[in-house]
Every structure is written in C-alpha cells, then in structure tokens.
Amino acid sequence: MAGADAQQAMAKSLGHDDTPPLGVVDFLLEQPGWVAAPFLAATPALDDQALTELIDTHGNTHAAGIAQRQGLSSVLVRKILTTGNDVALVSLAENHDAPLQRADFETLKAAAPALPHLQAALVDRHDLPADVAVALMWHTGPHLGRRALDQALAVTTDALSLAIEAAAAIGMAEGKASPHPEEAASYAVQKYSRHELKEPLVVRLLRDGDMDRFYACLDKLTDIDRATGEAIMAERSGFALMVACRAARFARSTFSTLVRLGEDGAQRSTDQTFDLMSAFETLDDASAERLLGFWQVLFAGAELADADDAGDTRQAS
C-alpha cells in the first residue's frame, strides 16, 4: 500500500508538468485509476484524443480521474457518460467546471436513484436546469429534499408552458390520466354536493388508509390529479407534499397531520419535521402553484407516454 501511496504522490507532482518523462507517464497510466487520478485530472500533456483512447484502453478505471479535469471538453463529457461508471459519473457531477448540457443532466438524473453521492452532487450544481431539478426531487434521498426543492423553485413560467406543449404533443388532456375508481369518484362528488368535502375529511381518509377515496377527494378539493397525488405522497422528503398543501391553501395543522401520516412520517427526525414546517411558512403561494403545475404536467404526461409505449409494444407483438 505504501508503494501505491508513493506512486499517487508522484502522479500528483507530475500533474502540472508540461513535459513529464514519458516512461514515468506510461508507468502511471498502467496503475489503478485511483493512483493515476491526480495526474489525469491535471496534466496538460494529454489532449482529448489521448484521454479518449485511455478510456477506451483502460475501460472505466481512468474515467473518474479524467472527469475531474478543469476545462473538460464536451467530447470528453460524452465519453465519460458512456462508461456508466458510478465513480466517474459522480466525479463528473462534482466537477462544476464541466460543461454539462441538458442531455447530460438527463443521463445523470437517470443514474441518480441508485447513487446517493451523485444525487448530492447534482443538487449542488449551480447550472442544474430547474425543470430537471423538479424531476430530481423524486430521485434524491430525504436528507436532500430541501436542496432539490430550492433548485426546483427556479422553474419559470416559460418552462411550464413548454412542458405543457410537450405533454399536449403526446395527447395529455385534463382528466385523462389516472381516472379514479367509479365508487371513489362518486363518493367525492357526494361529499362535495353536501358541503362535507373539507380538509378534515381528507386527513381522516388518509389516516384510515382509504387511498382511493383519499385521492378522489384530494382531486375534487384541490384539482391535484391522481397521478400527481400518488407521486407527491411517494416523495420521501415530504417537501412535495409541503408544496402541494401550500398551493392548495391548506392550513398548517392539516399539512402537519398529513406529513406525519405519510409513509415516511414516523421515520422523519424532529429536525427534518421542523425544516418542513419552516418551509411551509416561508414558501409563497405563487411559487408553490407554479411548481405544482409543473408536476401535474410531468406526471400526467409521463403516465400517458408509458401507456402509449405499452400500446406500441402490443401492436408490435
């Protein structure tokens, strides 16, 4: 191990050398990726072609070191992404100088659910597109919920308009996604007609585990469709539910009860609960409504796209 440490120190010392000894370079490049990483991350002696060939010849072992380079080119970004190597993807996301494009963020977002360090690296990037951050909330651990929300709140009305146009292109229409079971829908209509459709009823249905009626009444009371409602309740940090309750003008006590009754409510620490309640108090209604509107397009549209794909598969078979 001491030998490897010494080799890594040598790699670091040669990292900024314009003309390092070729024999030493060849030796370093044959070492494990973590040993060669300091050299690969900094050396000006290797151009994009040489670095690309290194990834080709050494597989994923050197990609993580290359991902740390300042002034990384878009060509190398794409090459690193194609490796799919966990360490390389995290290193790339942590490199705030890397010129990531929308497609690159989408690739990283897709890998994020299984990689907590990648989740943290993404939510800390200043150039993370807000609409990507919106979806990323469902791919981060509970402890990152607030940071992902802060990024998502930057989503603009223009982005929402574009999302609606994209959803319309695949046939999304109001009320088309996730219809409620007939009995639950009738129950909600009945409660509404009797002026009994109020926040305490929604709380009671969730407490009783009557989820079909819960989602139907939530929809009737707040216009949150079932697809979005299910996604909100499944989001582990509780910040999605906080946004929905704020947008729906629910009372603070209603939100407090709903978030405790949710699937992760009992596992949430006192500090996490306090953070949720503080966010509920400070989030403005307009931002909550804008973000909720984006989610509704996101989840209803995704469901319809999945249904269309299934239909294509059936026809092909």
UniProtKB/TrEMBL annotation:
InterPro entries: DUF2336 (IPR019285). It comes from the Bacteria. This is DUF2336 domain-containing protein. It comes from Candidatus Phaeomarinibacter ectocarpi.
